[in-house]
Specification:
Elements lengths: L3 E7 L6 H15 L5 E9 L9 H9 L5 H4 E5 L5 H6 L7 H13 L3 E5 L14 H8 L3 E6 L4 H14 L4 E9 L5 H14 L3 E6 L11 H15 L3 H4 L1
Parallel strand pairs: 1-4, 1-5, 2-3, 2-4, 5-6, 6-7
The protein binds adenosine-5'-triphosphate (ATP), 7-(carboxyamino)-8-amino-nonanoic acid and magnesium ion.
Subcellular location: Cytoplasm
Subunit structure: Homodimer.
Family: Belongs to the dethiobiotin synthetase family.
């Protein structure tokens, strides 16, 4: 039987998918809701494997899951470009169908699979396939990470509109990274997004001061994220 799971996409690159994916995995592991939680980043670019900046590294340590970093990311390309072009520039091609069958296999071999895209939905994996196409093939519902502040209404509504055009199931939106608890614009953004899309904003996440100069204390970081997820996100719909 296929596992439950979620595909984490965003309104842009650098919005917080890796933070949210790792934190969600840590939260689920901690809650023991599902026995075998797994993370997958089909393609990462702009990094090398083992680089502390790499999504594969941050997903591994941010979640505390019992996976190998090499198992978390299938393709890794050095140039900070969309996967299709990052691969081309290394003289390589991404085997899209390999990703599709790997995704199905990963769903069979886990109880809850969290997949992180690269950038947003219309980011090319090959000349004719995008992240959105991969989501469709895997039949996973999506969670959209958007920025918390000004500009997010347009980006989030456009992403939802495209997802719906493709028939994707949109479970919710997370608005990430607000700095001022009292900033009224965040609540107004939630009202506007829900009004125009009928997709629930399942929560907003503060900017956490979790990186320091002496290096990251991953255990402490995970604890902080688990508490933050518990306090700020309503995850019911994600687990249904
Ligand atoms: N709520 C937060 N608190 C503190 N730091 C955050 C938060 N959200 C994101 N960041 C930081 O912002 C940067 C960008 O976030 P992240 O790497 O998660 O984005 P992304 O959507 O995964 O990008 P990509 O498209 O490259 O995968 C990272 O340095 C991350 O640690
Ligand atoms: C290099 C980035 N960090 C990201 C790829 C982002 C591509 C964005 C393309 C675009 O929308 O213009 N790679 C990744 O998530 O692994
Ligand atoms: Mg990322």
């Amino acid at each position: 039987m296929k596992s439950k799971g979620i595909f984490i996409t965003a309104t842009d690159t650098g919005v917080g998918k890796t933070e949210v994916a790792a934190a969600l995995a840590a939260f689920i592991k901690n809650s023991r809701k599902f026995e075998n939680v797994q993370l997958w980043k089909p393609v990462q670019s702009g990094v090398t494997m083992g680089d502390p900046e790499a999504d594969s590294y941050r997903l591994l340590h941010g979640s505390g899951l019992d996976q190998k970093e090499e198992d978390i990311a299938t393709y890794t390309f050095y140039q900070p470009l969309a996967p299709w072009i990052a691969a081309e520039r290394e003289g390589k091609k991404i085997d899209y169908m390999k990703l599709v069958s790997e995704g199905h296999k990963r769903r069979m071999n886990s109880d809850f699979l969290i997949v992180e895209g690269a950038g947003g939905l219309i980011v090319p994996i090959t000349q004719d396939k995008t992240i959105a196409n991969l989501v469709t093939e895997l039949s996973l519902p999506i969670l959209i990470v958007g920025r918390a502040g000004l500009g997010t209404v347009n980006h989030t509504c456009l992403t939802i509109s495209y997802a719906r055009k493709l028939g994707l199931e949109v479970k919710g939106v997370v608005l990430n990274g607000y700095e001022d608890e009292a900033d009224p614009s965040i609540e107004e953004n939630i009202t506007m997004i829900e009004n125009f899309t009928d997709v629930p904003v399942i929560g907003k996440l503060p900017w956490l001061n979790v990186n320091n100069e002496e290096g990251i204390n991953w255990e402490l970081r995970r604890k902080k994220w688990i508490k933050t997820i518990h306090e700020h996100l309503d995850l019911k719909s994600i687990f249904e």
